[in-house]
Amino acid sequence: MRAVVRRRYGGPERLEVADVHEPVPGAGEVVVRVATSAVNAADAFMLRGEPRIARAAFGIGRPSQPVLGRDIAGTVTAVGEGVTDLALGDRIHGESDAAWAEFAVLPAQAAARIPRGIDLVQAAALPLPGVTAMQALRMGLAGAAASDRDLTPLDGRKVLVTGASGNVGLLAVAIAAAHGARVTGTASTARLGLVQQAGAEHVADRLHPGVDYGVGFDLIVDLTGHRTLADLMTRLAPRGTLVSSTGAGGRTLGPLPRIAAVGARDLATRRHLRVLAARRDGADLAALGRLVRDGRVTPIIDGVMPMSAAADAVRRFEAGQAHGRIILDATRLG
Ligand SMILES: NC(=O)c1ccc[n+]([C@@H]2O[C@H](COP(=O)([O-])OP(=O)(O)OC[C@H]3O[C@@H](n4cnc5c(N)ncnc54)[C@H](OP(=O)(O)O)[C@@H]3O)[C@@H](O)[C@H]2O)c1
Asked: How far away, in angstroms, is 165 Cα from ligand 1 center?
């Protein structure tokens, strides 16, 4: 099959379309004929092999997995042993480790059926960032059970999302606003309108010196790690929660220093400081799919590009030019 691969770490120039073996489903997995995918921060990090410490998992000298991409939407073509809730021909979306290809394999529990009325462009916009946003918001609800997908306690809460114009941020704003939260989002000047479109009540221009983000937040979802923890903590309500969910940081250690700082500060305050490690979860994705189906959340799409132009798509993403999700059309992989 055709796939977008890279044999070495580096920039988008490393990406090429090549023939690779079709995946075979293992126990608990399904194979999907990919219709659409999307570009994530994780794809850019994995392309470059950054932070370098992550190469311990992704391949020290060169990437152990040549195919990039995580979000997928498409049709099930093969089902592994033990999979009972998905069948051949089902239209599903979810998160794979190798999505930029004609076929992709993923754990059945990381997938959800695409609700009627949601097209394959919208469906590919949701998995990784949507599930991350759901889990970040839930983590911020004091007292909510880990398995509780009900975000209604967000009603009336004051929520700050930093990096609100990004993939996770736009969905976090939209999901929180759909549940009645009063959301402030930070972004660069050119993308403030997007954050408003997603449902933010207030926006703050991160490029404007001296801009006031506000105070008294019940929940801060920090997606950038660029404000100091001390600054963010002064903006929390006395029993508020800060959820740190950023992969950004230095090129060697990435977010590790920030993660350590969040843990240390949490021990010394009555406020709650948490680090999110999002996990694939088809049930969270299904819950988000219902919000989209019911018109309560609308993913914002930058545009659709041929998957064969994945290098240009990553360039656009890394240059901060995307206004919403960049979708890749896997039927154009020639
Ligand atoms: N915890 C987890 O398990 C998990 C899961 C998924 C993603 N993540 C991480 O969460 C972060 C957000 O992911 P994403 O996919 O939404 O990334 P994204 O689409 O790149 O969004 C990040 C946003 O940060 C803003 N930004 C860029 N440079 C900045 C700076 N110097 N100061 C302040 N803001 C800046 C950008 O918006 P403006 O330029 O408009 O401000 C950008 O839209 C990434 O670091 C990703 O690795 C973590």
From this structure: 8
